[in-house]
Design goal:
97 residues, mainly alpha, two-stranded antiparallel ribbon, elongated
Length: 97
């Protein structure tokens, strides 16, 4: 069972999308915790860009001039409002992921 893999997709590219078979020695609780930690890390890593996208959309609606570059929006928020402002609301996302 260790060398087996399950294939997803039935087209010619299906052989490229393979997933290794689950190791039977890994407890379900460990997989559950690892998935939760991975989701939390993903949310923390990508949240600043979601924040920047929302900030640009809201400023466009209000008519205020703002940069559409997410890196500039993030750097402006860090400079003017601080680190905590960038992650405002992220805790709810991390807890419920």
């Amino acid at each position: 069972m260790m060398g087996e893999s399950r294939k997803f997709g039935s087209n010619a590219l299906g052989s490229l999308w393979t997933m290794p078979a689950q190791d039977a020695s890994t407890p379900v609780s460990v997989s559950f915790i690892a998935g939760g930690v991975a989701g939390g890390v993903e949310a923390i890593a990508t949240y600043p860009f979601e924040f920047a996208k929302t900030r640009v959309q809201l400023r466009n609606q209000s008519g205020a001039a703002s940069s559409k570059n997410p890196f500039l929006v993030v750097s402006q928020v860090l400079r003017n409002e601080g680190y905590r402002a960038l992650y405002k609301g992220c805790s709810t996302l991390v807890v419920f992921v």
